[in-house]
Amino acid sequence: MLAELPVRERAPLTGYAREAFGQRWSDDVEIGLGHNGCDTRNDILARDLIRVEFRPGTRDCVVESGLLNDYYTGTQIDFVRGAATSNAVQVDHIVALADAWMKGAQDLDPELRRAFANDPDNLLAVSGPINQEKGAADAATWLPPNPDFRCEYVKRQITVKHRYHLWVTPAEHDALAAQLSACH
Fold first, then answer.
1. Which of 5, 96, 112, 164 stands 20 to 30 A from 154 (CA)?
2. Containing structural domain, residue 105
3. Which residues contact 1 (CB under 8 A, 6 or more apart)?
4. Is residue 32 one of the residues assigned to a domain?
């Protein structure tokens, strides 16, 4: 799939806004976990955490707490919902929305952008501080600190970019290819 991704320079971030990708954590997308009564964020937390506790009365939808085996850091992180604690675990867009915007998403129709933003293949519960460190970086400038997850990480980036007909920069292509060559 990497060979099928167009290689171009990034477009400007002009016109980018989070809202261009639709309602945050929608439940109404056709791909993945949509239409189950839970928003995508809670779906991903329920998928990626262990020992999950749900808020009573939410039909096992709203995740109150759990334990994350964080792929990005290789550590365990307690998740407890709350204003002072929820940021310890965040749901990351493996292909960041701003990165996608500069590499073709600005040309996608709004429905496809919303599907991209809520695609479970592009979402992963991770360490909040590491997610903030990553920001909108691509594989040329950021890889997870946990080397055991890097192969899976770049494979997911390639899969998602391929699915949504996005492109990669020359440096990103080279970084993805180098990481793939190191995979076993």
1. 112
2. 16-181
3. 158, 159, 162
4. yes
CA distance 146 to 127: 12
Residue 171 confidence (pLDDT) above 80: yes
> With contact defined as beta carbons under 8 Å apart, do 59 and 52 qualify?
no
What total of structural domains would you count in the chain? Answer: 1
Could you give the CA distance from residue 87 to residue 100 in angstroms, rounded to a whole number? 23
Is residue 4 assigned to a domain?
A: no
Q: What is the DSSP letter of 40?
A: H
pLDDT at 34 over 60: no
Mention every residue, 6+ apart, whose C-beta is less than 8 A from residue 122: 93, 94, 95, 116, 156, 160
Q: Which position has the token pair 């793939």?
A: 180
Residue 57 lies in a domain: yes
Q: Show the DSSP H helices in 17-93 as ranges.
A: 40-48
**Whole-model pTM above 0.70?**
yes
CA dihedral 47, 51, 57, 58 (to 10 degrees): -10
Q: Give the contacts of 147 (CB within 8 A, at least 6 positions apart).
A: none
How buried is 163 (Cβ within 10 angstroms: 0-12 exposed, 13-18 middle, 19+ buried)?
A: middle
Would you say residue 116 lies in a domain?
Answer: yes
- pLDDT tens-place string over residues 130-167: 999 999 999 999 999 999 999 999 999 999 999 999 99
